[in-house]
Amino acid sequence: MLKRIRLLLNKTNNITRSSYLWNSINAMLSAAESAVILMVMNRTNGLYDSGVFSIAFAISSLMMFVGQYGVRRFQSSDIHEKYSFGVYYAMRYISCIVMMLSSFGYCVYGTICKDYNTVKFLVIMLICFVRCIQAFSDVFHGRMQQKGRLDVATKCSAVRYVAEMASYCIMLVITRDLLISTLACAITSLVVFLVTSMNAAVDYCDMKVSMDLPQIRKLTIEAFPLFVSLFLNMYLSNAPKYAIDTYLTEEIQAKYNLIFMPAFVVQLVAHFIFNPILTSYAEVWVKGELRTFVKLVLRQMLVILGLAVFGLGVAATIGIPVLSLVFSVDLSDYKRELCIVMLGGGMLAYSVFFNTVITIIRLHRTLIACYGLAAIAAFAFSGYFVRTYGMLGATVLYAIIMTVLTLSLGIILLWGLLKARREGTTQ
User: Fold this and answer.
1) According to the 3-state scheme, what is the secondary structure of the chain?
2) Per-domain boundaries in the chain
3) Spatial separation of the C-alpha atoms in residues 125 and 101, rounded to whole Å
4) What is the pLDDT of residues 245-270, one digit of tens each?
């Protein structure tokens, strides 16, 4: 049976077309996962449980970057295989263990300092476990992409997303119990991972862990700036949610998450549009085709701009009525906040893209300064903005931080490209 599943996952008539198709499907499912669950949860359990789920999802998204350690982009663009898959595999075991320990530590902190009850503690831990599975499967998907089979990787992810959403929603309808439903989702995610991602990986990977400590240490050091930048980028995206978790209510948390969702979708869709061509970007750069590389970057920037403008237009016209109808929550007082969040979402999409390109041209060591300064500002001021101005303060702070971050990353990228042209090399 497992062999039949592998054959089905690998079956395609056109790898390139299949990669784009399944990557698009995967993007939509990834963007829809929390939205679909919240659509059901708001109707079965109410805003309080939706607020708990929202902050759990935000925390798990942050912790997932600990598990991934920012290596996926590095791995998929590692054209010359500087590091063996065994080294990437070993490192992923280590990073995922650290992820779950960090998640537990955060929950203990939340219990002591934020009065988390037992259910909230366990729900956060279980959703972090689901994200840990995603982080672990990512090392196999990175290898598949490296071998030109992104279609297989995205098929595996798509099946897992569907299974997670279905199990969670069905259990919510049957039990109306947040904890039981989350547990069912975690078990489903693990089973699907074993029969798809790990099963399909045997065709592309030597499933042996290489405990080459010098190589692991070297990769850890080399990927550290990228990890920090991605981790801090997610922290910056969710900083208002963490502040709301500290100062406001679960109900407000749920409402903020609902108006934030369209902005996150813009960023996510933009990310998955350029994710299939990441390896080709790296190949163009390695070949020294600087003019072609710049054209690719500019074209992607126009795509992101189009998505952001379209998203803002939708938000300003029918955004609030649609969100209120879909999620069965009255959001009529938050049109201004939604538009501000959409502006920040566009900036977030640019920041993620610039981060990726900076990684390809191997200037990722410069990223820590940009993200570090923005994170310090977010940490210092998010509490004041949220405590004083509520949801409006959270959205304004988010938009400002994302804009400053994007501008600083854009300056680094421009400097790197000008430096390459001046020196006449992209190596």
Assistant:
1) CHHHHHHHHHCCCCHHHHHHHHHHHHHHHHHHHHHHHHHHHHHHCCHHHHHHHHHHHHHHHHHHHHHHCCHHHHHHCCCCCCCCHHHHHHHHHHHHHHHHHHHHHHHHHHHHHCCCCHHHHHHHHHHHHHHHHHHHHHHHHHHHHHCCCHHHHHHHHHHHHHHHHHHHHHHHHHHCCHHHHHHHHHHHHHHHHHHCHHHHHCCCCCCCCCCCHHHHHHHHHHHHHHHHHHHHHHHHHHHHHHHHHHHCCHHHHHHHHHHHHHHHHHHHHHHHHHHHHHHHHHHHHHCCCHHHHHHHHHHHHHHHHHHHHHHHHHHHHHHHHHHHHHHCCCCHHHHHHHHHHHHHHHHHHHHHHHHHHHHHCCCHHHHHHHHHHHHHHHHHHHHHHHHHHHHHHHHHHHHHHHHHHHHHHHHHHHHHHHHHHHHCCCC
2) 1-211, 225-427
3) 10
4) 999 899 999 999 999 888 777 766 66
Q: What's the one-letter identity of residue 214?
A: P
The type of residue at 173 is V
Q: Give residue for tokens 């990353």.
A: 409
pLDDT at 426 over 60: no
Show the tokens assigned to 426.
């992209």
Closest CA to 378 of 62, 94, 35, 21: 62
The share of the chain scoring above pLDDT 70, in percent, equals: 96
Cα–Cα nearest to 415, from 352, 357, 333: 357
**Distance between CA atoms of 281 and 57, rounded to whole angstroms?**
31
* pLDDT confidence band for 117 (50 / 70 / 90): very high
User: So what's the pLDDT on residue 104?
Assistant: 97
Residue 252 in tokens: 């407000």
Residue 349 tokens, joined = 């999409």
For 3-33, the pLDDT digits (tens) are 888 888 878 888 888 888 888 888 888 888 9
In sequence order, which residues have a C-beta less than 8 Å from that of residue 377 and are 6 or more positions away? 401, 404
Among 67, 26, 4, 30, CA closest to 199: 4
What residue type is 225 in one-letter code? P
Task: Mention every residue, 6+ apart, whose C-beta is less than 8 A from residue 317.
Answer: none
The chain-wide mean pLDDT, for the chain, equals 88
- What is the residue whose two structure tokens read 């998907």? 141
Give the pLDDT of residue 32.
Answer: 86
pLDDT at position 277? 64
Q: What is the pLDDT of residue 131?
A: 96
Give the confidence band of 379 by pLDDT, cuts at 50, 70, 90.
confident
